[in-house]
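User: quick one
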Amino acid sequence: MKKVKIVKIGGNIVDKPEALERFLKNFHKMEGPKILIHGGGAIASKLSKDLGIEVKMHNGRRITDFETLKLVTMVYAGLINKQIVAALQQNGCMAVGLSGADGNSVPATRRAANPIDWGFVGDVEPEKINVGFLKTLLEAGCTPVFCAITHDSNGSLLNTNADTMASSLARALSAKYSTSLVYCFEKDGVLADPDDDSSVIPYIDRESYKSLLADGRIVGGMIPKLDNAFAALEYGVEEVFIKHADNLLVQKETLLKL
Amino acid sequence: MKKVKIVKIGGNIVDKPEALERFLKNFHKMEGPKILIHGGGAIASKLSKDLGIEVKMHNGRRITDFETLKLVTMVYAGLINKQIVAALQQNGCMAVGLSGADGNSVPATRRAANPIDWGFVGDVEPEKINVGFLKTLLEAGCTPVFCAITHDSNGSLLNTNADTMASSLARALSAKYSTSLVYCFEKDGVLADPDDDSSVIPYIDRESYKSLLADGRIVGGMIPKLDNAFAALEYGVEEVFIKHADNLLVQKETLLKL
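Assistant: Done. Structure below.
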């Protein structure tokens, strides 16, 4: 079975031109078929403020009304996606920037408006991902670069969580490929002590994840990330890495396996 | 030789949601391999005003400084391109939205800053167009949908004229395909009398074009459009149609041949 690597970078890397440039050079050097998923970053919030579009939140999470959808489509699918593609092309990487609407690659379902109307927010159904289209691109030597914008197959674009988009793509591709999922962020891995950057846990399996959760050692935003990762492993993804964006080519990370 | 149709719509269609919807339904019905190129429309100018980005002009033409480049990348490659892709997907058309950076499909050269610095404006070199990438997409049953953003292969995006992008794509593809180029706009074709919409000239060849120019019957913005069209014919494009966006499937048009 051929291998494919799915790499996700967050908005905190997208926001720092030098960190992004370092990451893209390493990503280009990574051998074999690969896919990049990028988050949004602070540019959308800044533009939102500049345009006087009110940011509506519920329990700390953003509601995507129509004006916000147009804005994130411009910033994620337009500016950030094409700047990343142009930078990868400069390095000689045959990048192709995509939203989930392109090639019907990642269809999604608009989240039900009950009890909270999150607006134009999409949940990906991994079994509907157009693996054939992605296979065509990968076999032609292309590197798909996804922003986290999807569509409902009924004419509407949808805003999607980039972590979930990455794990859904990895799940779907694991039917045809031996799939590795790599989450890059600003720490060296999952930390045993959030205040000690050197306390990286090198290996977590299903059992040790349960213990870490029970001991209260995994907290905050790391929980949905790891839940996503283990869900991907349950559905056939080979291995998940959580690591610093600077260490893409270095074996310094947390490895997750079932 | 397989056929491919390259269709270009201008900003005046992009700006009118109902006209755009009608056009996209017809475009979907058009049989065989096809490519769409869309212009920009008034959204970029409105956003420019809302953001207080100064519009710099020279001889009635816009100068693309870095802020303007970011803005047109957001609007053309993000908002408009993805909205068109989502609408085509809704109709069942396997659209794939692209800029010229994606798949290195349309590399360009930044226009020399002498005598006027036009900023981040790119001139397409048709012989560098990645025909292999487009062939891969077309043979997979996909319909490429281009905005007129290109790149310089050195990391920078460039703003490009959509008419020229369409004729350059048609020229490049004519090496592998029997190629038709269709310019859609808001008139039924090239008019013998600009004030009489029914005065469509059904057929223009190289000789009659020269006479029409000499008689002063072709004026204004139609001249560069027709120059572009005849340049495409000189380089192997089979035929060029100039017609109303509503008449895509109707034989009511100006046909250009050598």
